[in-house]
Amino acid sequence: MNTPAETASTPKRREWPLWEVFIRGQHGLNHRHVGSLHAPDAEMAIKNARDVYTRRNEGVSIWVVEARHIAASSPSDKGPLYEPSESKVYRHPSFFDIPEDVGAM
Amino acid sequence: MYAQMVKSEASKDDPDKLAAFQARIDAGDKIEPKDWMPAGYRKTLIRQIGQHAHSEIVGQLPEGNWITRAPTLERKAILLAKVQDEAGHGLYLYCAAETLGVSRDELTEMLLDGRMKYSSIFNYPTLTWADMGAVGWLVDGAAIMNQVPLQRTSFGPYSRAMIRICKEESFHQRQGYDIMMKMCQGTDAQKRMAQDAMNRFWYPALMMFGPSDKDSVHSAQSMTWKIKMNTNDELRQKFVDQTVPQAEYLGLTIPDPDLVWNDDKGGYDFSEPDWSEFFDVIQGNGPCNTERLAARNKAWDDGAWVRDGLMAHAEKRAARKVAAE
Amino acid sequence: MRDALFEFLCRMGDNTLVLGHRVSEWCGHAPVLEEDIALANTALDLIGQTQMWLGLAAEVEGADRSADDLAMLRDVWDFRNLLLVEQPNGDFGQTMMRQFLFDAWHLLMLQALTDSTDTRIAAIAAKAVKEAQYHLERSADTVIGLGDGTAESHRRMQAALDLLWPYVGEMFVADAVDDSLCAAGIAPDPATLRAAYEARIQTVMAEATLTLPDTGFAHQGGRTGRQHSEHLGHLLTQMQWLQRAYPGATW
Asked: Does residue C238 fall inside a structural domain?
């Protein structure tokens, strides 16, 4: 039990920082954001990610990044950032009609 | 239902922004953390997701009570994996709440000092091994009924957490039913145990959906915001209709003499739980409220030196690294 | 040889059974959610290994008993686990110190067993060794983090080390069972694991700023079953209760 004097002199506890977790699935895919967790440092964050997010063999590689280091676009940027790519439909494979005779592509 | 009786907050925001926000929700858009949202939406979500997370964490305790007494190695492993999943689900949900600007430690402290609630069901004791069956089958069954529609909830992080939770939880109810099947095919003592568990958990499971919310303003607001997807009564009815045949298959009697099929509505008529008991439990007078909160407080207090120690070490290491560079 | 083999398999399986049970006691009570989940993973691995070791023990014995029978229906004097693993959890530091002292030995033992002339043993070891490797990384990190953390965490870790160190020596004392298995190439002479073990312990303790007690004393009697601590009986009364109270029931 802390006496009032002790409590007053105890500095406010520092909470474990929040980390964002990215995992590469089994099939050579990109790393994908799977969620977050708390850990004191990067090493422990990776270990915690293994325990928390790969309980069902979901991954072969783990990235973690402290949440405060992520720079995010703000929602008002939504137009300028994403709309130009909407007109570049040729980036999507279904844009092209491929004759059936040439087989799978 | 893991988040029972969450009061929704009224909004006093700019009407134009509110209308645009509601239009997005009506169009099926997901709201993301950095998007503008009404203060009431944010507050209600923090309360709901926080309560849901607390329920997962406190929910570890009644089943954790039997991990060291599981009858076989396989049952022990399955139960442990299930209770571990609950810790994971609490973790996902706390993270979803954190995107709204509240920290996990703050939420935890609100649970521990009673400012925030958790589902009333976890204040009931688990007395026999059959209770592991009943909890998995009835309690998880009721929870899943609520969680499946929440996968479509309007707040992106909450929706994604629920998708992950539902995927992982699919085995929970089955393992409970599997325990019940073994008990009901077993010795006379096992059958008695199974019926006793059914008798004790039936009404508390029905209470998990909360009192009738036909006339509740809060429920209406939450449903407009798509952070509550069905009324309490709809879900309770669905649960009863789904569970009765499962109980019949087991040869168990549902402890409700008035339970009867109603052809007109295409569902069962059933007795309401004792709502005065429900409010007693919510107020802190359930059979295990004191033990549950004491256990969580003890874990948190006893763990403080560990959290501080590992944090201090990480800071020392970071400082040494900087000094070396 | 069959008796010696059975005895050895019970030693391996009882270690993981009793330690897995102890670690599972933390479920829902750990200092932080991430640790709760990690501890449960460790316990799950150990329970899984128990099923393999005791399953093989039952097969070797050929007395129509199952792994569950061995786990749930033997009494204290038939258990063959190290005294270390039956020690109570204490605080989180004591639990992690016990885990580290065990993991460091367990990994070496399993690595040696992957070369066993008994292919069944080599196969179990090959699966378990990967799990043990991770357990050791995690427990070593935690011992280092808490040893070199705050003044309080340091004090608690030193107390845990002082308390548990006398239970380490038992791991390396060979008896007739070990001699015959070693001669057949089935299992290593436990004494040969000691040098690598102590090297590992010293490295970690140095990083953790903890001091190894300078006692060579070793409590013994667990792995031979001659004399367990009082703690094991209480653990078994919980673990075995249902099977004892309702004999013959299927769960």
From this structure: yes
* ipTM reported for the complex, 2 dp: 0.96
pLDDT tens sequence across B75-124: 999 999 999 999 999 999 999 999 999 999 999 999 999 999 999 999 99
Sequential DSSP letters for C106-152: HHHHHHHHTT-SSHHHHHHHHHHHHHHHHHHHHHHHHHHHHHTS-HH
Q: How high is the pLDDT of residue B176?
A: 94
Which other chains touch chain B, taking contact as 3+ CB pairs less than 8 Å apart?
Answer: A, C
How far is residue B24's CA from residue B28's CA, in Å, rounded to a whole number? 6
Domain-located, residue C124: yes
Tell me how crowded residue C173 is: count the other CB atoms within 10 A of its CB.
14
Provide the strand spans (E) within chain A.
Answer: 18-24, 31-38, 61-66
Cβ <8 Å between B314 and A55: no
**What value does the mean pLDDT of chain B take?**
94
Q: What is the dihedral of CA B258, B260, B262, B268, to 10 degrees?
A: 90
* pLDDT digits 0-9 by tens, B4-14: 777 777 767 88
Smallest Cβ distance to A43: which of C41, C134, C141? C141
Q: Which of A41, A55, A56 sits opposite B314 (nearest CB)?
A: A41
CB contact under 8 A, A52 and C141: no
Report the SS3 class of residue A66.
strand
> DSSP letters of B237-285?
HHHHHHHHHHHHHHTPPPS-TT-EEETTTTEEE-PPP-HHHHHHIIIII
Binary contact (B311, A40; C-beta < 8 A): yes
pLDDT band at A83 (very low <50, low <70, confident <90, very high): low
Question: How are beta strands B260-262 and B267-269 bridged, if at all?
Answer: antiparallel
C251, part of any domain = no
Domain around C223: 2-245
- Number of domains into which chain C is organized: 1
Residue B6 DSSP SS3: coil
Report yes or no on C72 lying in a domain.
yes
- Residue C241 touches partner B, C-beta closer than 8 Å: yes
C73 lies within 8 A of chain B by CB: no
Interface of A with B in 11-70 (CB under 8 A): 13-16, 18, 34-38, 40-41, 44, 52, 55-56
DSSP β-ladder status, A18-24 and A61-66: antiparallel
Chain C closest-CA separation from residue A71 CA (Å): 25
Residues contacting B67, CB < 8 A, separation 6+: B76, B79, B80, B83, C24, C25, C27
Measured CA angle at B65 (ends B302, C229), to 5 deg: 70
The alpha carbon of residue B178 is apart from the nearest alpha carbon of chain C, in Å, by 10
β-pair partners for A36: A20
CATH classification of the domain holding C67: 1.20.1260.10
Buried b (16+ CB within 10 A) or exposed e, B148-182: bbbbebbbbbbbbbbbbbbebbeebbebbbbbbeb
**Total-model pTM:** 0.92
